[in-house]
Sequence to fold (443 residues):
Amino acid sequence: MAQSSIKKKPYGKMIVMGLISLALYTLLLTKQDLVNSTFAQGGWYALLPIITAFVFSFIHGSFTGDFWTVLGVEAARKKKEVK
Amino acid sequence: MQDLVPSFINLDAITIIYLFGVGFVGGLVSGFIGSGGAFVLTPGMMSLGVPGLMAVASNMCHKFPKALVGSMKRFKYGQVDVKLGVVLGISAEAGVLYGAGIQEKIKAAYGDAGSNLYVSVAFVIILATVGGFVLYDAWKTYKSGNSNTEEKAGKLAKWVQSINIPGTMVYFKAINARVSVLFTIPLGFATGMMAATIAVGGFVGVPAMIYVLGAPSLMASATELVIAFVMGLGGSLKYAMHGMVDIRLAMIILAGSLFGIQLGAIGTTYVKPFMIKVVMGVIMVIVLFSRGLMVPVYLAKLGIIDALGDTTVKLLKTSSFAIMIFALLLGAFIVLRAMWQGRQAERLQHAAGALEHGEV
Fold:
């Protein structure tokens, strides 16, 4: 039997993360007046944009990573010599 | 900076698509060369009417989460020297604070036009000197026909590696040598200062790691993402404490750039190392002209030169914008083309391997 190195593509995870990402962006853009007035207050409110950036990077980063994997765009299989 | 009232631009569909697109291409370039998205994103936002300082702040706030995702991806490929990134990143943080302080003073004294002029002039000087050198070096490698061979440390890097200052020496995997932190601190500081000024520390950081410390291009560009994360996080906090971050802009750009950075990082596994320098140098030199064209506009606004006619201002702005878009697309084209060729070569190699083993 031919041993296949083909991994199962992460369709489910991509769809879930994609939907959460879409929901986050919809929320950000529909509530932009509230977001602008709250996030730009400075001081301790500075944590809000920072936390937002981390949350978006985790959710959307996971989605985009899986997006390319699902499309079959992956790193070269041979180990790249970097030294 | 506290007394500055942040001004938010209106977001329409075209602006969102534009920011997403610029973010994607910027991310693609960043994933490939370690930085570079910002040199198009900052002026890109400024061309939409975002004040210079807010453009720098919002860009920085999209940069650190993007760099986090990119560095994690490239770490998987064995291209990241975390220790070097953190050591440089900490001193870069000091540079960010110093650079941001200068920005605040300029903005307070000369307003938005002064701030924009300072950012544009810094762009032109850095891009001309460093970009010209990187491009020249890439061209030399290409002409020499040695683009496939392992990169060697230059004379300056060899000298830096030969200096032994007891109590300050640290071993770095990227350069496979011990180097005094007395060399890395000023390099990190300069990287941070550039990041706070033009939001592109990597245009100092990556060439510094390659030419001063002797790191290979792939490791330098990947490690730059760690530096970008460390200083981007600190810089964003500082700007956010003064309410200068437009989170909408930052997150829309992030939406596109996370698609791009994943692709750019994958691209590095397919190309010859000198392609990092080619992409970096080409884009830097082209963007230099884009920003250079805007200098007279800001000079006129400040009353340093005679007022320019409306037609002239419009022509300069349009040309600047068109050149920037060209730089963006050319950078993306080179990355994607190099990646495509690498993938084709790999497929051919696998097909040949399969034939050899009688699998076909």
In short: Chain B touches chain A through 52 residues (CB under 8 Å).
